[in-house]
Task: structure prediction
Amino acid sequence: MKRITLTMCMMLLVLTASAKKAPKYVFYFIGDGMGVNQVMATQFYLSDVDGNLGYSPLCFTSFPYSGLVITNSANSYVTDSAAAGTALASGKKTNNNVLGMLPDKETPCQSIAEMAHEKGRRVAIGTTVCIDHATPGVFYAHQASRDNYHQIGIELSQSGFEFFGGADFHTPFDKDIPDEGNYVQAENAGYTIARGYADYNAKAKSAGKMLLLEQNPKSDHYLSFAIDRNENEMTLSQITEAAIDFMMKEPKKGFFMMMEGGKIDQACHGNDAATFIQETIDFDNAIKIAYDFYLKHKKETLIVVTADHETGAVGLSNGAYRMNPKVLQYQDMSEGEFSAYLEQKGREIGDILTWEEVEEELKKHYGFWDKIRLSNKQTDKLRTTYVETFGMGPGELKEEEYYKVDKMSDEATRIISEVAQISWGTGTHSGGYVPVFAIGVGAEFFTGQMDNTEIPMKIKQVAKY
Result:
């Protein structure tokens, strides 16, 4: 009976979607690691900073249709980004670490981006991480392992998609492959490479296909966290603006666009609450660009916002029946950046930092003792951690998923979460729900509980790919 009911529901969806005019312009936003509590914490934070007990809606949480998404992979209740991305791109479950293929690691899964391109739509793929990372990669590549970065980059050039935007290509793990290989492949395939938003504006008019990368990419090939970013660094909003501009060179064709807020996940792997909140706000700012486009093309546009999985098992309270998220405004750099900052300060003075010097930096960059009252226990823990970190010279760094930090930076970030009363269950992914929000043509189909594989299939049916 259950199988019959589900089949009937899907048939009804197909018939209803087929009867309506398909959206000409489709935006697909994926917040990597953005579970429901990441979204709620951000709304609480914005309200608390304004002095209100409540929540301040984000642009995407104001969309009229929403639902909850189940994220398990084919071989685990807790998915990785490759398997989750494959589900969101193609509607197929696969094993963790497999990218754009079925669990047999041989059968490719066609993505909705590839379907859209076959139907004559222009396609844009953008992200805040490397352009050959798991989530962007599943929309154009098919590899037995997400770590095959060079091969994924080759498939990028072979895709023929009109626009790609991100930090850079990832350095190949195979040391025999030259770093510049993927750039040469892209140029040979007709892509104009622009470095930074200003360079894009200078080159876009004459370009047939565009590969927009960061002007001065970091060594890890990701864009900077929003909390660390300087005014010369590229943003997801700029990538989204550039993509829309480039797609609208041929507006009659319409487009499919996927934009990923990839560093929400990275902040949550480090249990860095202030940083993930700023990343979520930054992600929402990019969605506002698409929403402005929607307001001009309401009868032709669909926007879908979701996530691949939750990261960190974020808890909204640590058992005290209250939260204090506004204190997170006093942290002005990510834990990784603060760790590098302390290391640089030590180099500048040519000596080990004293406790008094570290204490002053904690006041300046976390607000401790100055704007945030700490308990004696918390202060004592920081002093003990100082000795463990600097007492015998630079100590061993703690390995996070995407970066390394010293113990002092890690402890400071843990304590500010504790003061904000945000708790963490893990430093990896969890199996929790993620949200989906939608607005525009066909948005009404994105409601209720659904599996992640259903989202691209609904887009496919609504957009008639």
About this structure: The mean pLDDT is 93. The chain has 16 helices and 16 strands. The longest helix spans residues 273-296.
